[in-house]
Automatic annotation (TrEMBL):
It comes from the Bacteria. It comes from Scopulibacillus darangshiensis. InterPro entries: HD/PDEase_dom, HD_domain, HDIG_dom. Residues 23-139 form the HD domain. SUPFAM superfamilies: HD-domain/PDEase-like. It holds the Pfam family HD. CDD domains: HDc. This is HD domain-containing protein.
Length: 177
């Protein structure tokens, strides 16, 4: 049994506030994609889904005169940096293992290169999984941030991911059912 489940992170007010701001439907889809990619790339699925759920927790809404300003966002965005920090704090306060919290925070820090000067990032497998998962759910014009989902449906999908991770964990221990 994991000490920190995805459900525990999802229901936390910090997650609801900040992930809700950047799009809960997108965050859950990315967590699901991250789960699938983690199996293909042989990455710990627990770390992958947590990083997927929290990857955009650092987003800030850039507004000018009450309107979303994409140029302002592109110029000033540091959501991956802010997100890594915010997610790390949330994970540690929730009781996450410090090594796991660091791995997840780094995957969030490097899930996009949009805020970095030109150059090539050398991603490890977990960081690659989160990047691929995010790209898999992206829509033109950032529309993936505006899709909505009912809280109840979101929670059901989160609990499904928890269950799949727990089941896989039990199978690895040699338990069946
Ligand atoms: Fe994203």
């Amino acid at each position: 049994m994991r000490k920190v489940t995805l459900e525990k992170l999802f229901t936390h007010p910090i997650t609801q506030k900040y992930v809700g701001r950047s799009g809960m439907a997108h965050a859950i889809a990315v967590a699901e994609h991250a789960y699938s990619f983690s199996l293909k790339l042989n990455v710990n699925p627990d770390l992958a889904v947590k990083a997927g759920l929290l990857h955009d927790i650092g987003h800030y809404k850039w507004y000018r005169d009450g309107e979303w300003d994409y140029d302002l966002y592109k110029e000033n965005d540091i959501h991956a940096i802010k997100g890594a920090n915010r997610a790390h704090k949330l994970l540690i306060r929730s009781g996450e293992d410090p090594h796991a919290a660091k791995e997840i925070a780094l995957a969030i820090l490097l899930h996009t290169d949009s805020y970095l000067p030109d150059g090539e990032l050398r991603l490890n497998s977990l960081q690659r999984v989160v990047t691929l998962a995010d790209e898999a759910d992206e829509e033109p014009g950032g529309n993936h941030h505006y899709r909505t989902i009912e809280y109840k449906d979101a929670l059901t999908r989160i609990c499904n991911l928890d269950k799949r991770i727990e089941d896989a964990h039990l199978q690895n221990l040699g338990c069946s059912g």
